[in-house]
Amino acid sequence: MVIRVFIASSSGFVAIKKKQQDVVRFLEANKIEFEEVDITMSEEQRQWMYKNIPPEKKPDQGNPMPPQIFNGDRYCGDYDSFFESKESNTVFSFLGLKARLPSKAEP
User: Fold this and answer.
1) Where in the chain are the domains?
2) pLDDT for residue 29 is more than 90
3) Strand order in the sheet with 74-78
4) Nearest residue to 50 via CA among 40, 65, 34, 71
5) pLDDT in tens, 58-69
6) Is the N or C terminus of the chain more exposed, i.e. has fewer CB atoms within 10 Å?
7) Do 96 and 76 contact (CB within 8 A), yes or no?
């Protein structure tokens, strides 16, 4: 399964762009394989994202805002959930991945 980050490339909101960049940079820096899915380029992908976010995670009004993170078809969370997991050093668990152990240098 691959991590999928649903983004909006043409978002006019600076805050959304920064959140998207934060997630992508973290995944790249930690060499976590992922795929960006641009919901502004595919109505089908946008509808899939909306449909697969659990009802209790959707906002009271309007649609969920990107970035939204999935592991395959399993919903991981939104940016706030990602940020909380980053702060508590539980991102691998949040993403449904096994934590990587630091490699020990040979003496």
Assistant:
1) 3-95
2) yes
3) 34-38, 3-7, 68-71, 74-78
4) 65
5) 988 888 999 999
6) C
7) yes
Burial of 61 (0-12, 13-18, 19+ CB in 10 A): exposed
Q: Cβ-count burial of 71 within 10 angstroms (0-12 exposed, 13-18 middle, 19+ buried)?
A: middle
| Residues constituting the chain | 107
Which two tokens mark 45?
């992908």
Token code pair at residue 5? 């980050």
* Torsion on CA atoms 4, 77, 86, 101, rounded to nearest 10: -60
Yes or no: domain 3-95 corresponds to CATH 3.40.30.10? yes
Which pLDDT band, with edges at 50, 70 and 90, does 104 fall under?
low
Structure tokens that stand for 90 in this block: 């539980």
Helix (H, G, I), strand (E, B) or coil at 69: strand
| Nearest by Cα to 6 from 85, 60, 107, 75 | 75
Q: What is the pTM of this model?
A: 0.89
DSSP state, residue 8: -
